[in-house]
Design a protein that fits this description.
The complex is a heterodimer of chains A (about 250) and B (about 300).
Chain A lengths: L3 E12 L2 E12 L3 E5 L6 H8 L7 E6 L2 E2 L5 H6 L2 E3 L12 H8 L8 H6 L6 H16 L15 H14 L4 E5 L7 H16 L3 E5 L3 H7 L2 E6 L2 E6 L1 H5 L2 H8 L2
Parallel strand pairs in A: 3-8, 3-9, 6-7, 7-8
Antiparallel strand pairs in A: 1-2, 1-4, 4-5, 9-10
Chain B lengths: L4 H34 L6 H18 L4 H24 L7 H23 L15 E3 L2 E3 L1 H23 L1 H11 L1 H6 L4 H27 L6 H14 L5 H21 L5 H15 L8 H5 L4
Classes of the chains: A alpha/beta (about 250), B mainly alpha (about 300).
Chain lengths: ~250, ~300
């Protein structure tokens, strides 16, 4: 096992004439929280879309566990153990909270297509087990009581927690958080920060894209600063805060 | 006819409407399943019904298989046709836009119709009823046992699909894919496989509709288009993608058609259904049961 869980090597993404990600090099150590920060439009979400297979890179390599994974389809990337959350929460709004998390167990369920559709549901223990596992993850994020509610009816803060529970239900090795605190109030942001730290303690590598600097500086082990798709600084939260390039990028000359 | 008076007539028309409506509901369910998985209308849906009917005729009347056995073989055969259609005409499309895919389904519908004409000829095919073809009376209305088979099988299919979509992982994954494809792929769900499955299920439902209606209407190769139009109308009236809406709209449309045929003139039967479709589209474009919010998200 290589020390770097995730490695981006000369990663490049061009949309028409716009260079969104410009020969980016970035590495994420196993079992740490790495934050990617940068001004709006710096290409942070594009990086996540490249890693998870929603976009194909224009150049460069994405290495996960030492193996190149670029160009793989999203469902294959998910099967490798990479999960993510979205800046605009992407839940299954017409399903119940519990069902949302159950779908997250999809990869961990062993019932094949035929078996799970043809055998009468009441005969199958698997279904029950998936539902129990899903409840466990709901409790983990403190949402056990909402299991039966329609996911679309939850307030935003709870929807973010649900999305996290669903990602955790996949039992990923690497979890990408895309602005988990956006739209949350101060209390909810603190709770989200605690949850992310707890996730790290479980041995899951976390990559965080976030604008809330207090949250980033509180929980990150490493902070990488991106501007115009380029890596401009990297270090511990304390180092990055005093880096002159970073201050320029954020505040202008 | 006049022995039972107005009520008997009414009951007679309602039974006839339930029978027609069940078929519309089944065709609409087929439309909805593929619509939810892909966002397209599969215009070959009517051909699935025709193939189901004709295959059943061949197996029961030609090969003299028992009805349950022939039923199973026919459904599997048409499901295979649905899967092949998806694999060879939908899946390979490099840049799938809704319009492109819909035109492909029209092409497939023409090909299937032509193939059916070559294989089964242009004549209508008779098939024996599931049980007796002796009518019996309920409160003065004469009913064919086949009508009860049709209504019963519709109920079984609705219950079966409800269980499938709500209580199996595959069903949940299909729903998840329909609600939010990006998030579903992130969960490791192979969305292409779900699309294939949706074609298989739709074809299967179409086959069932064809099998149960053939003893009554006598199937011929050209019936697909009208069935598709009626089924599509049903799906739209019920709110595209809304299974329960499709079911209620199907029954409603069938009954209104039968009442119109009975009290006005049977010549206007098809016109009545299309008139209802137009009225609903003018007043509530999202369908009776569809939410206008959801219809805004639709791609066409």
């Amino acid at each position: 096992m290589s020390k770097n869980h995730l490695e981006l090597i000369n990663l490049r993404k061009v949309f028409g004439g716009v260079v969104a990600v410009d020969d980016l090099n970035l590495s994420v150590r196993r079992g740490t929280i790495t934050s990617i920060i940068g001004p709006n439009g710096a290409g942070k979400t594009t990086i996540f879309n490249l890693i998870t297979g929603y976009l194909k890179p224009s150049g460069g390599i994405i290495k996960y566990d030492g193996r190149a994974v670029n160009g793989k389809k999203p469902y294959r990337v998910a099967a490798l153990g990479i999960a993510r959350t979205f800046q605009n929460v992407q839940i299954f709004s017409d399903m119940t909270v519990l069902e949302n998390v159950m779908v997250g167990r999809h990869l961990r369920s062993h019932s094949g297509l035929l078996r799970s559709s043809l055998l009468p549901p009441f005969f199958r223990k698997e279904e029950k087990k998936i539902s129990c596992d899903a409840e466990k993850w709901l409790s983990f994020v403190g949402m056990a009581e909402e299991a039966g509610r329609s996911a679309g009816s939850l307030p935003l803060g709870s929807q973010r927690m649900l999305e996290t529970a669903r990602a955790l239900a996949m039992e990923p090795n690497l979890l990408l958080f895309d602005e988990p605190a956006s739209g949350l109030n101060a209390r909810e942001t603190v709770a989200m920060g605690e949850l992310i730290s707890k996730i790290k303690e479980m041995g899951i590598t976390v990559v965080l894209v976030e604008h809330d600097m207090e949250l980033v500086m509180d929980i990150s082990d490493t902070v990488s600063v991106i501007n115009f798709g380029k890596h401009i600084a990297r270090g511990t939260p304390a180092e990055v805060q005093v880096n002159p390039d970073v201050i320029t990028a954020y505040l202008g000359e | 006819m006049d022995s039972g008076g107005g009520f008997t007539d009414l009951l007679q028309f309602i039974f006839m409407g339930l029978q027609r409506g069940s078929i519309y509901a089944l065709v609409a369910m087929g439309f909805n399943i593929i619509y939810n998985a892909t966002g397209i209308i599969n215009f070959a849906q009517g051909e699935f019904v025709v193939l189901g009917g004709l295959m059943m005729v061949t197996l029961t009347m030609g090969f003299t298989f028992s009805i349950p056995f022939a039923f199973l073989i026919t459904v599997l055969f048409v499901m295979a046709v649905g899967i092949l259609m998806e694999r060879f005409t939908i899946n390979p499309v490099k840049n799938p836009t809704v319009l492109r895919l819909i035109i492909i389904t029209i092409a497939v519908s023409i090909i299937l119709e032509g193939s059916a004409m070559i294989l089964w000829g242009k004549e209508s095919h008779y098939m024996r009823h599931f049980s007796s073809d002796e009518t019996f009376e309920i409160l003065g209305a004469t009913i064919l046992p086949q009508t009860l088979w049709i209504i019963g099988i519709l109920i079984l299919i609705v219950i079966g699909f409800m269980l499938f979509f709500n209580f199996t992982m595959t069903g949940k994954c299909m729903r998840a894919c329909a609600i939010n494809r990006d998030a579903a792929r992130l969960m490791g769900i192979n969305d292409r496989k779900m699309v294939m499955l949706s074609f298989a299920l739709s074809a299967g439902i179409g086959a069932v509709a064809g099998i149960i209606i053939t003893p009554i209407i006598q199937m011929d190769f050209g019936r697909g288009t009208m069935l598709a139009i009626k089924g599509f109308g049903t799906a739209v009236v019920g709110g595209l993608g809304n299974s329960l809406g499709g079911l209620v709209a199907g029954i409603l449309l069938g009954v209104i058609e039968a009442l119109g045929a009975g009290y006005i003139s049977s010549h206007y039967m098809d016109a009545i259904a299309l008139l209802i479709l137009l009225i609903v589209l003018f007043i509530r474009p999202s369908g009776i049961f569809g939410s206008s919010e959801a219809s805004k998200l639709k791609e066409f």
